[in-house]
Amino acid sequence: MIVPDIIKQAARDLRKNMTPAEKNLWEYIKSGKLEGKNFLKQKPIFMFEEDSGFPGYVIADFICLEYKLIIEIDGNIHYTPEVLELDLYKQEMLLEKGFTVLRFRNEEILNNIDKVLSKIAASFL
């Protein structure tokens, strides 16, 4: 399926404007700290096609396609009731498609990266 331009642009914008936590984790991923597994950042994932014919996408913060592993990094906005509900809905759809979803708070990435990397590495077993 061809990714619509608006989704491609949204993913590009997210890649260009990563949060400090996202940048931090990406540096560890790029340096091979996760057993050299190949990850993509801000990757659109096709989820469904609406009745209108418009495709629905989720943009994953990080994804390892080989293991169908998605890593989401959540800032404070993700803990508002509306965003929590949307995140739960997206996560349920991803689980139905066979993905594993790991969620980390910004603070975990910035303050305890070794523990985060261990949790991610454990998901490869």
Tell me about this structure.
The mean pLDDT is 91. The protein has a single domain, classed as Endonuclease, Chain A (3-Layer(aba) Sandwich). The protein has a four-stranded mixed β-sheet, sandwiched between helices. Helix content is 44%, strand content 26%. It has helices at 5-16, 20-30, 81-96, 106-111, 113-122, and strands at 40-49, 55-64, 69-74, 100-105. With 125 residues, it is an alpha+beta fold.
Q: Helical region count?
A: 5
Q: Structurally, how many domains make up the residues?
A: 1
Mean pLDDT over the full residue set: 91
Q: Could you tell me how far the N terminus lies from the C terminus, measured between alpha carbons in angstroms?
A: 31 Å
The largest sheet is: 4 strands, mixed
- Output the structural class: alpha+beta
- Number of DSSP strand runs: 4
Tertiary shape: globular
Low-confidence regions: none
The proportion of strand residues reads 25-35%
- Gyration radius, to the nearest Å? 15 Å
CATH topology tier name:
Endonuclease, Chain A
Q: What's the helix-strand series?
A: HHEEEHEHH
Provide the helix percentage: 40-55%
Sheet with the most strands: spatial strand order? 1-2-3-4
